[in-house]
Structures are given as C-alpha cells and as structure tokens.
C-alpha cells in the first residue's frame, strides 16, 4: 500500500509542478515596463491563410530596455505581423520601416500597473485552483485505496502529506506572484 501512496504523492507533486510552470509562463506574458520577447509569445499571425505563432514567422529581439525588434523571415509578411500584434490587445503599436518592425514599449501608468497586478493575481488564483483540483484527485485516489483495505492511520497520514504538498505548492505560487507584483510596481 505504501508504494501506491508514494506514487500518488509523486503524481501530485508532478501535477502541481505543471500548474506552477504554466503560471510562471503566464506571468512572463504580463509586461512590467521593460521590453521582453516573451511579451509577444501569445501573438498569432495570419500566414498563408493559417493562424501561426509569431515565433514561427519572425525573430523577436530586444534593441534596448524599451524597444523590441521583429525581423520577419519573409518581408511580405510585415503587414500581417503588424496586424497580429495590434489585434493581440497588448497596447503595442509596431512601426514598419520596410525591413522590420520596431515596437516601442510605452511606460506604464499607475493605473495600468494596478491592472497588471490584478491580472497577475487572477493568474495566481487560477494556478491555486489547479493545485486544489490536483489535491482533490489525490485524495480521491487515497479514498479508493482506503476502500481496498488501507488502514485508518495510513489514510490520515496520507491526507496530511497531501495537504503539506498542496500548501508548499501554494506558497510557491504566492512567492512567484509577489516577485511579479514587485516587478510591476517598480517604476
């Protein structure tokens, strides 16, 4: 029975790690005033009549702290890339110079910073919901083991262990959120 419990714990840790990793990738999309290629990671571009991620049709790099450069593989796609960036509602306005797109990242207003913190907080809550769902799944598996003959003591210890794993993962999410909040609010 302890092998099954260890397997349940490992699966819970793995699922929680995936939730945290997804949360971290969502945080990377929230800009904190500094130019970063990850800001454009969710941008989709119409390329040969198919919606394609920007990274598959262009190279995105940082020129300086406030400027991104988008260098397309094919110059004929400049207008489609520009339209994709504008349609993504990131508040960015690409400038087309015929060779590449220059994107100046505007400084954040206090109100916009608060909105971004709210968005980061919502993402943190989504990550915690995922972690709680993982806990529920793990507890369901332990309950199945109990009906198969797991002792009451092992059952109680398993519940405590699962809660400890869940608490640790939630603290990791809180830590990542606090770092991002500080990053966003720093002028």
Question: In brief, what are we looking at here?
Answer:
The chain is of the alpha+beta class. The protein has helices at 2-29, 78-87, 110-147, 152-185; strands at 44-47, 50-53, 58-64, 67-72, 94-96, 101-104. Helix 1 packs antiparallel against helix 3, helix 1 packs parallel to helix 4 and helix 3 (110-147) runs antiparallel to helix 4.
Notable features of this structure?
187 residues; alpha+beta; four-stranded antiparallel β-sheet; two-stranded antiparallel ribbon; 4 helices; 59% helix
Question: How would you describe this protein?
Answer:
With 187 residues, the protein is of the alpha+beta class. 59% of the residues lie in helices and 15% in strands. The protein is built from four helices and six strands, in the order αββββαββαα. It has helices spanning 2-29, 78-87, 110-147, 152-185, and strands spanning 44-47, 50-53, 58-64, 67-72, 94-96, 101-104. A four-stranded antiparallel β-sheet has the order 3-4-6-5, with helices on one face. Strands 1-2 form a two-stranded antiparallel sheet. Strand 1 (44-47) and strand 2 form a beta hairpin. The mean pLDDT is 90.
């Amino acid at each position: 029975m302890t092998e099954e419990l260890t397997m349940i714990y490992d699966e819970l840790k793995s699922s929680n790690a995936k939730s945290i990793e997804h949360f971290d990738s969502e945080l990377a999309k929230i800009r904190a005033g500094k130019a970063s290629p990850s800001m454009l990671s969710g941008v989709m571009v119409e390329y040969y009549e198919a919606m394609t991620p920007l990274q598959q049709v262009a190279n995105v790099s940082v020129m300086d702290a406030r400027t991104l450069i988008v260098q397309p593989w094919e110059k004929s796609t400049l207008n489609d890339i520009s339209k994709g960036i504008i349609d993504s509602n990131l508040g960015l306005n690409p400038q087309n110079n015929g060779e590449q797109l220059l994107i100046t990242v505007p400084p954040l207003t206090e109100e916009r910073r608060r909105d971004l913190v709210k968005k980061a907080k919502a993402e943190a809550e989504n990550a915690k919901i995922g972690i709680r769902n993982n806990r529920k799944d793990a507890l369901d598996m332990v309950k199945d083991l109990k009906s198969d003959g797991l002792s009451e003591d092992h059952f109680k210890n398993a519940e405590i262990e699962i809660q400890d794993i869940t608490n640790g993962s939630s603290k990791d999410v809180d830590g990542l959120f606090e770092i991002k909040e500080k990053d966003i609010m720093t002028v």
